[in-house]
Design brief:
By secondary structure, the chain is mainly α. The protein is built from 14 helices and four strands. The chain is globular, with a radius of gyration of 21 Å.
Length: 377
């Protein structure tokens, strides 16, 4: 009995040591279990809810019709963002029930981000179905960015100048609005925005899990990553449903907000490099699109076109699946570099990258298998 007890104790100590090596802020507590359950629950709810949303969307006409710019050849339901939002909210409610004491300490930050993202989901959904002028969308995005600032979720600029506060507000608004639109602009091909959001959420989760002060970000990112994975089960080519502006705004806003929780301080322009690397591909794609459209004398916000990176890959002969996987790979490499710039240990980086590859690989395999079963019937 003594030997068995010693073995059990050693196993427990080795397990906690392993969790600590992964950067878990409190490996002997149960907070990490709450994060895993939050991820799994968000994934399950989103995955199961998507077929219901799709069926209802087709009945009421919530769908993108085929045109010269879009890649779909038949009406494609565009209400997937509602299922993603429902999965995240349901998972956070579960987290509240599992860890009420921990949640209470970060409730204000979680609710602020959820409020801002809820506003954007509503505006995005209205835009998906009826269309909204660009200035209304931009105004709403600025408003939700200011909501974060009001709750002290911001990028600080401690230069010691009289305009530090103004600079902080300006940089935070530009970051939140920029990332929100960047994710939305990437949502032009099956599986692309969902995969990029999943990779980024998991990488940011690996970083935030090491800091007790970023508990709000950790929970939100776990729920967001789970919802993205559940959505990809139905969105990898050939897609059954797309997330629409509602889902893309939701992903972009939450990723932008969680990446600056913990009061990111910018004393030089280089301090922005690590957060930018997490979202490097969407940022670069949006930047080159804006520059090209401005040089052509077009409004970047209201002029659609086939000038995104995924359009170029398709023009080069890539299939949608190959193009998505290629851009996922580039995103994974940039997030790998971002984690290195954040000072993550090699074991944390390797564990995160392997987890991302395994989860995405399993999800794609499930999707391919479902397509084969359906084609055999």
């Amino acid at each position: 009995m003594f030997i068995i007890g010693s073995l059990g104790g050693n196993w427990e100590m080795n397990f906690y040591d392993f969790l600590e090596s992964l950067g878990i802020a409190n490996p002997t507590g149960t907070g990490w279990l709450a994060v895993i359950f939050t991820f799994g629950f968000a994934c399950g709810v989103t995955w199961r809810f998507i077929p219901e949303v799709r069926s209802f969307a087709l009945r009421v006409g919530w769908a993108d019709q085929p045109n010269a710019r879009r890649l779909n050849r038949e009406p494609l339901p565009n209400a997937g963002g509602l299922a993603i939002y429902a999965g995240v909210v349901a998972a956070l409610i579960l987290a509240t029930l599992l860890r009420p004491i921990v949640i209470e300490g970060v409730l204000a930050e979680v609710l602020t981000i959820l409020l801002g993202s809820s506003i954007l989901v509503l505006v995005g959904f209205i835009d998906d179905q009826f269309g909204l002028p660009p200035y209304i969308r931009l105004f709403t995005q600025v408003l939700t960015a200011l909501l974060l600032i009001a709750s002290d979720i911001r990028i600080e600029t401690p230069f010691g100048s009289p305009i530090d506060s103004l600079l902080s507000i300006l940089i935070t608004v530009l970051w939140v609005v920029g990332v929100t639109n960047a994710i939305n602009l990437m949502d032009g091909m099956d599986g692309l925005a969902g995969g990029i959001s999943f990779i980024t959420a998991m990488s940011l989760l690996a970083v935030s899990a090491q800091f007790p002060t970023r508990a709000a970000a950790t929970l939100l990112l776990a729920a967001l990553g789970g919802a993205a994975l559940g959505f990809l089960r139905h969105n990898f080519h050939p897609s059954h449903i797309i997330m629409g502006d509602a889902g893309a705004y939701f992903f972009g806003y939450v990723l932008a907000a969680t990446s600056i929780i913990g009061n990111l301080k910018v004393t030089t322009v280089f301090a922005l490099v690590p957060p930018v690397f997490f979202l490097l591909l969407p940022v670069l794609d949006t930047t080159q699109v804006f520059v090209r459209r401005l040089m052509a004398g077009k409004n970047p916000l209201s002029t659609p076109g086939k000038d995104h990176l995924h359009h170029r890959l398709l023009a080069w002969g890539f299939s949608q699946r190959r193009a998505a996987l290629t851009l996922w790979g580039i995103t994974l490499v940039s997030n790998w570099l971002a984690m290195m710039l954040q000072g993550m240990t090699p074991i944390v980086i390797y564990a995160t990258v392997i987890s991302i590859v395994v989860l995405l690989g399993f999800t794609v395999w499930q999707r391919m298998r479902a397509i084969e079963v359906r084609s055999d019937r």
